[in-house]
Each structure stands twice: as structure tokens, then as C-alpha cells.
Design goal:
Length: about 200
């Protein structure tokens, strides 16, 4: 049975992630890159491991799509931003599964995400750097280190660029942790993939 049929029957949120048209390869590449970055932000903030991602897949009845660490690694490695990216092509069903997994994990860590965003707002109002708060400092360091280690352009990215990206993703995570988070992330992925193609 195809993953879409099984997952659709056992996960109502699956049906919310609809498409008017099948994405072209360039759009799919952009979607892969964005999904990997959002997962990287979650990992950096909440210290989520591969096991945590796989457990979320089981809880969502998506273990047929993301079955083990090798399958997850191949999905992540399919991002065009990755060093030594693999040949695996992410299909739209796998993208839908990753959206649901990301939002499930974001909901589980919503309190931590809220606290981090509140600290960011507070420090911005005080004209202080985010590193003044240990939670944000740890997150930014984790994000930057992991990005530089895994991504093709990692070593060429300035600290300011990485900080901007990490903080933008942090604010995005707050929206994705909301009840309608999976729909928001899905629409954001489609909008960004179209913008980058044009």
C-alpha cells in the first residue's frame, strides 16, 4: 500500500496538506532545503535527536514513510544545501510526512520555543544581543556549529548571516507549534519554493 494511502487514513492532518499542482524538481529542491533547515533549528533549540524524530514518526503513524535512521539520513541528505548530498530524491509524500513530524515536535516543545521567542523580543526591546540570554546563546551556537558542519556553504556563511537565519527559523517554529502549524508550514514551503523559482 502506498504511504499516502496508509498515512491519509490514519492521520487526518495529512489531508490538509494538499497540492493544486505537482511541484517541479526545482520547487522540490527548495522544499527539501527548507524542511532540513527547520529540522536543524528544532535540533539546535530542543536537542532533538534522530531517535526523537523517528519516535514522532511512529506516534503519527508515519513509520512507513520514515522507517529508520538510514531512511531519515537519506531524506535529510537530499537537501541541496547539504555537503555530499545523496542521490535520494525527496518525493511529495515524504515532504508531507516531514511537515507533520516537524509540527508534532514543535508542539511538544512549544513552551521552550515560546520562552526563547519571548527572550528574543525582550532583548530586542533592550537593544541587547541575543547571546545575552543563555538559552538563545546556546541555540545560536548549536545552530551555527551544525550548519557549518553539515552545509555546503557553511564555512562561507558569516556569523551575522547564520544568526539572522537561526532567529528567523526560531520565530517560524512558534507558528508551526500552533494547532494549525502543519498547514502554515506547508503553505510557507510552497510559497517560498515558488518565490525562489521565479
Amino acid at each position: 500500500m502506498p504511504p499516502s494511502v496508509k498515512s491519509s487514513a490514519s492521520n487526518p492532518a495529512w489531508d490538509e496538506l494538499t497540492l493544486a499542482n505537482q511541484p517541479d524538481p526545482t520547487q522540490l529542491d527548495n522544499i527539501k532545503a527548507q524542511l532540513d533547515l527547520v529540522l536543524l533549528a528544532l535540533e539546535a533549540l530542543a536537542k532533538i535527536t534522530s531517535e526523537g524524530i523517528l519516535q514522532a514518526a511512529v506516534e503519527l503513524n508515519l513509520a512507513d514513510v520514515v522507517s529508520d535512521r538510514v531512511a531519515l539520513w537519506r531524506l535529510r541528505q537530499s537537501s541541496p544545501l547539504r555537503r555530499g548530498r545523496g542521490r535520494k530524491r525527496l518525493d511529495i509524500e515524504e515532504a508531507r510526512a516531514l511537515v507533520l513530524i516537524i509540527c508534532h515536535l514543535a508542539k511538544q516543545h512549544q513552551e521552550l520555543i515560546r520562552r526563547a521567542v519571548a527572550l528574543l523580543e525582550q532583548l530586542t526591546e533592550q537593544n541587547k544581543e541575543p547571546h545575552h540570554a543563555s538559552l538563545l546563546g546556546d541555540y545560536l551556537d548549536n545552530f551555527s556549529n551544525t550548519y557549518q558542519e553539515r552545509m555546503e556553504e557553511g564555512e562561507n556563511s558569516s556569523p551575522d548571516q547564520l544568526t539572522y537565519l537561526a532567529l528567523k527559523l526560531l520565530v517560524d517554529l512558534l507558528f508551526y507549534s500552533a494547532p494549525s502549524g502543519s498547514r502554515r508550514l506547508w503553505l510557507a514551503l510552497l510559497d517560498r519554493s515558488r518565490d525562489r523559482r521565479e
